[in-house]
Amino acid sequence: MDEMRLPDPLFTTSVRPDWIDYNGHMNDAAYARVFSLSVDALMAAIGLDQDGRDRSSLTIYTLTMTIHYLKEAHLGEVLTVTGRILEHDDKRLRVWFEMKRADGAISALNEQVLLCVDQSGDKPRAAPFAPDQIARIRA
């Protein structure tokens, strides 16, 4: 299956003071936070923004997340995240994100497997994406 591209950039932010650790650079947990916010942007791109979640009772849960830390990021630096949907089926997405600094250096790489979850019943359960969401994923 061909890789599917997402909006470019998918997410942009600046390194905040509370993301800086005792080593003077962005803490590892902050990288995970930026990639998590990138998933929020991906959700909006495929129709799972707040309105889409309200209409469908569907959301996304993260099954796995792997981060490769390549270059330090420092206070105030602008970070952009680009991404691709590498694979999908009716319930899952495998995505790839690249976090770049303003100088173009790749700061971190991230791969995630995401699961579509229906929250309408007594307890959340895996469910297929809605037809309009699948159409956006395949676009």
- Hey, roughly how much beta strand do the residues contain? 35-45%
Overall mean pLDDT score?
Answer: 94
Number of helices: 3
What CATH architecture label applies? Answer: Roll
In angstroms, what separates the terminal alpha carbons? Answer: 13 Å
> What percent of the residues sit in helical stretches (DSSP H or I)?
10-25%
Report the radius of gyration as a whole number of Å: 16 Å
Q: State the secondary-structure class.
A: alpha+beta
The number of distinct structural domains comes to 1
The CATH topology corresponds to: Thiol Ester Dehydrase, Chain A
Which sheet architecture does the biggest sheet show?
7 strands, antiparallel
Low-confidence stretches: none
Write the H/E string, N to C: EEHHEEEEEH
* Shape verdict: elongated
For the secondary structure, the number of strands is 7
Query: Superfamily at the CATH H level?
Result: Hotdog Thioesterase
Give a quick summary of the entry:
With 139 residues, the chain is an alpha+beta fold. The protein has helices at 28-45, 50-56, 131-138, and strands spanning 4-5, 11-14, 58-69, 78-88, 92-101, 106-118, 125-126.
